[in-house]
Specification:
The chain has 104 residues and is of the alpha+beta class. Helix content is 42%, strand content 21%. It contains 3 helices and 5 strands. A 5-stranded antiparallel sheet has the order 1-2-3-4-5, with helices on both faces. Strand 3 and strand 4 form a beta hairpin.
């Protein structure tokens, strides 16, 4: 029975992440790889919409340095896409929602 409770709690957690991702405000960024970016503080989650898809991906569990790096990557002359790929995407699992379910 213990596995059932654990499975249910994982499903509940995923639903909470997806619900938060749907409500996260996304802002356009200048990048060849990333179209829009957002942040959900409750889950320390970066929300990313790539140029190749209308799907929004959420990467929860960012630490303070990763959050600071993401803000820095959004500055002129920096590469948001490179930072997301090398730091966030490489070290964090993701959840996703289709654009018709996500905040715009």
């Amino acid at each position: 029975m213990a596995w059932r409770n654990k499975a249910m709690s994982i499903d509940t957690h995923r639903e909470a992440l997806v619900s938060t991702l749907r409500r996260t405000r996304l802002v356009p960024v200048t990048s060849r790889a990333v179209r829009k970016l957002g942040y959900a503080p409750k889950y320390r989650m970066a929300a990313v919409q790539y140029n190749t898809s209308d799907t929004v991906y959420g990467y929860p569990g960012l630490d303070d340095d990763e959050i600071a790096g993401l803000v820095e990557a959004m500055q002129p002359g920096a590469s948001v896409g490179e930072y997301v790929t090398k730091v966030i995407k490489a070290h964090h699992d993701h959840e996703h929602v289709r654009s018709d379910e996500a905040a715009r």
